Amino acid sequence: MDLRQLDMLLAVVDAGSYAKAGEALRVSHSAIHRQVRLLEHEIGDRILVRAGRRVELTETGEILLRLGRRLRQEVTGAERQIKERNQLSSGHLRIGTGTMMLVFFLPPVLDQFRKQYPGIEVQVRTGSSDSVLEGIQKGDLDAGVILASSDVRPPAGPLVREVLYQAEFVLAVSKKHPLASKKTVSLAKLIEHPFIMHPKTANVRRVLDRIFADAGLTPKISMELENEEAMETMIELNMGVALLSKRRAISDHIHYLRITGRRIYCDVTLVFADREYVPRTVAEFSRICRAFSSARPHA
């Protein structure tokens, strides 16, 4: 039994004869008659019987008729959903990112995506780069915008990684801090002051840890905080030195400086699963990300 045979059965019932069904389907009535007979042979019972010039369903035929109509509705519904998804008039997009990208990069991207595809439900989850990558690998997320660095080896996995732009990170201190009058500071002087650090799972933290390790130095860590907003608040209270994105550090409330002879950059990176078929929602989100990353400068 296949869908084509059921479609022919429905056509015969709706038209009332093999001849009219053939006209509707644009096939010969003998071809339809043959397929109905094959179906009867397969199930071992009569489906249609003649009643004068018309044909009528048997009880078995009634069962198959209900099955055929139900399958036709499901196929039509599936075709409609596929068409809507291809046109991005429905569906969902699950994005993973960090707080810095959510504040400084993604808002116009998400706004543009929503304007172009209002029928798509967008969900955003913040977390570490590792948690975003894990979410994509598990299928819990469709795409991510994360911080990465060439200094840190990325986790293995079938993922597409595309650098959108480079973001500079600088040292940030309170206006009352002893380093507030400096533009640069040596690592040896820097470790004299307590640090407000990102968690160890953050790529920014890994970069800074690598810098200190290569110099054979160990910083004093007073706090470990998960997002830059909280770190900025603690910096204003003069609780320590922190490594912040330059965009956030350009503020009337805090002072920023750099390590002598060194600039620190992280790659703002678009990530999604590496597979033969890229969902249209992911493709369009990626396109908008690329457009905004190239259309304006980033610090």
Note the main attributes of this structure.
299 residues, alpha/beta, Arc Repressor Mutant, subunit A, D-Maltodextrin-Binding Protein, domain 2, 2 domains, ten-stranded mixed β-sheet, two-stranded antiparallel sheet, 12 helices, 12 strands, 25% strand
Word description of this protein:
With 299 residues, the chain is of the alpha/beta class. The chain has two domains: 3-86, Orthogonal Bundle (Arc Repressor Mutant, subunit A); 89-299, D-Maltodextrin-Binding Protein, domain 2, CATH 3.40.190.290. The chain contains twelve helices and twelve strands. The protein has helices at 3-15, 18-25, 29-43, 59-86, 99-104, 106-116, 129-138, 187-190, 203-214, 228-236, 246-249, 280-295; strands spanning 48-51, 54-57, 91-97, 120-126, 143-148, 159-174, 184-185, 194-197, 220-224, 241-245, 254-259, 264-273. The strands form two sheets. Strands 3, 4, 5, 6, 7, 8, 9, 10, 11 and 12 form a ten-stranded mixed β-sheet that branches. α2 crosses α3 (29-43) and α6 packs across α12 (280-295). The mean pLDDT is 89.
CATH topology of the largest domain: D-Maltodextrin-Binding Protein, domain 2
CATH architecture of the largest domain, please?
A: 3-Layer(aba) Sandwich
Helix-and-strand structural type: alpha/beta
| H and E string | HHHEEHEHHEHEEEHEHEHEHEEH
Tally of discrete structural domains? 2
Q: How would a crystallographer describe the biggest sheet?
A: 10 strands, mixed
| Uncertain regions spanning at least 5 consecutive residues | none
Which shape, going by the Cα principal axes?
rod-shaped
Using only CA atoms, what is the Rg? 32 Å
Query: Which whole number gives the mean pLDDT?
Result: 89
Q: What's the number of extended β-strand segments?
A: 12
How many helix segments? 12
Work out the strand percent: 25-35%
**Helix fraction bin:** 40-55%
* CA-CA gap between termini: 64 Å
Q: CATH top level of the largest domain?
A: Alpha Beta
